[in-house]
Amino acid sequence: MAQTVYKVTDENGNVTFTDTPPSDQRQGVETQTIPVANTAIPIESSDTGAVAHDEAAEVDYQTRIQAPAEGATIPMGPGNFIVEASVDPRLNTSEHLLLLLDGAPVGPPQKYASWALTNVFRGEHQLQVQRLDEAGVVLDVVLDTSAATTVYVMRPTVPR
Hints:
This protein is an all-beta fold. Helices cover 2% and strands 43% of the residues.
């Protein structure tokens, strides 16, 4: 329940708020009212339920590889680098991401849009990210696939 609050200003201009009226009437007193908490009118929602797979095709999915950039060269070393992707809209609870390196999956599908690749062989490689929706125990529905990004891995060669 809302209570009355008093704003008291003394002769020096100092302001104090209190819930009891001051006994000294020489001070400037204003009555303040505080509205009851949580009095906002709720917004009506249109709950349409879960989205069916047929309706999911209408969503404009955007799956992109952010890093490494197209045509990037991974410098000399063990062939380790990070792949980062961005997705729009955000993943829902049943969706996962899968990284493809030269068309083959790199690990299982995951919720995170970042992969640490290690020991990638030298040469040209194609990277793609797929947005998957769980459709059952074994099969996943591919909702979107990023454009292919080409990277070049430099690694030392060992003379034989």
